[in-house]
Design a protein that fits this description.
Blueprint (H helix, E strand, L loop, with lengths): L7 H10 L4 H16 L8 E4 L3 H15 L10 E5 L26 H8 L3 E6 L33 H8 L5 E6 L5 H6 L3 E4 L19 E6 L2 H11 L34 E5 L7 H19 L3 E6 L4 H7 L3 H14 L9 H7 L7 H7 L11 H22 L3 E5 L8 H5 L13 H4 L5 E8 L5 E7 L5 H15 L15
Parallel strand pairs: 2-3, 2-4, 7-8, 7-9
Antiparallel strand pairs: 1-3, 4-6, 5-6, 5-10, 9-11, 10-11
Helix pairs in contact: 2-3, 7-16, 10-12
Length: about 500
Amino acid sequence: MSFAELTIADFHQRVRTGALTSAELTRWYLDRIETLDSAGPMINAVVTVNPQALADAEALDAAYAGSGEFHGPLHGVPVLVKDQAETAGLPTAFGSALFADHVPAEDATVVARLRAAGAVVLGKTAMCDFAAGWFSFSSRSGYTKNPYDLAREPGGSSAGTAAGIAADLGLIGVGEDTGGSIRLPASFTNLFGLRPTTGLVSRTGFSPLVHFQDTPGPIGRTVADVAALFDVITGYDPRDPYTSICVTTDDPGTYLASLEGAQLSDVRVGVLADAFGTGPDADQVNEVVRAAIGRLAAGGATVVEGIELGDLADWIAGTSLYTTQSKQDLTAFLGARPTAPVHSFDEVHASGVFHPLNDLIDDIAAGPQDPEDDPEYHRKRLRQEEWRRRLLTLMADAGVDVLVYPTVQVPPPTRDELAAGKWTALTFPTNTVIASQTSLPALTVPAGFTGGGLPVGLEVLGKPLAEKALLRFGRAWERETAPRRAPELPVPAVAR
């Protein structure tokens, strides 16, 4: 029996009728991981399988059989978790071979909330070294393949979560986004990926990169699954002061319910014209995104064309703090872990144990020990605030609820292109930094496919704490276009 493209709602309905158990579904995913991820096409999305996953699923089944009640809103749901999140008793490597045997004693807050909600942690997913890059290259796990074209990148740094969910190696997935690490791989793999307003989801137990931009978030095949996971992981955490923003809104825990009745006719959409790239690669993406914008209008949305930010490249460069902030943030994180094999970013860099294509590691190493030693630091922090105001002013002047544009200006690159140095981390043309460097929420939705069958994402930028509006947009788009299309993989019989 195949459980391909199963949703959380469908799974729970089958559990209630006795047609399916969590153990059966968990075993099915474990079989797929064995035959598609570790063998066959060797996607290499899951870096560590949880040896207790099946036992955890069986325990949840037994509890349900005895009580007739679900353990929580994610009862029995097999979840893939980016290896950036610490998991008690399960190796957590942060994408680094140095940490291959590092076993935390405590769960990250997000992982603890998943378990409390009844989820089954199926495994940990591949990522580049310390999430420092747009791609999958990792000293811990090599590279991950894009299920839609095995010679291409799935994007990063949440590469394994996106590739794993796209290839049906888990039901729903957790990623993390600092500059676009949820939305970029989701867009490259025909998925929905949400970057929340910074602080709605705790970062406790996640390795950092730029602490005032870091945020975990959901990646899924459907908007309802994304919303269901988001309901569980949002909320105040006294160990993460940024989550104090949660007390300013009553939305956490209500995102799934808010999808009811979503329709495109309720939305006013602004098209950010200067976020479209130029050149042959960008032309492929622009064609798909322009067609998607046409579908928005045909579906009843009000579309306002021609909104111009101006000097997008200058805004990006003038608010980029990865090479300035990351060394201090990673050193503080590593230094607070007595059992870690190294205790500073400089030790990581000096070891030489990082993937050579992760050029951002070298860039971070050249940065200051203290960000404030950089004379541009405070100007760039203020510039981030100025950019956020500018984007919100554009929305206000145009009378729109959201801005849309290509999530990434080019299709998924091949590994050969990246090995040849076609782009670096700081030159790759991803629009995801617009939201990340302004701390605004954004959702990428599947926009369609290029003529060569490569997925393209449409990014939807919202106002602060507008996650409900973004998810309702995503649900309305999903109902209008049914954009999800599973990849065609050589699937052995055992994994069907």
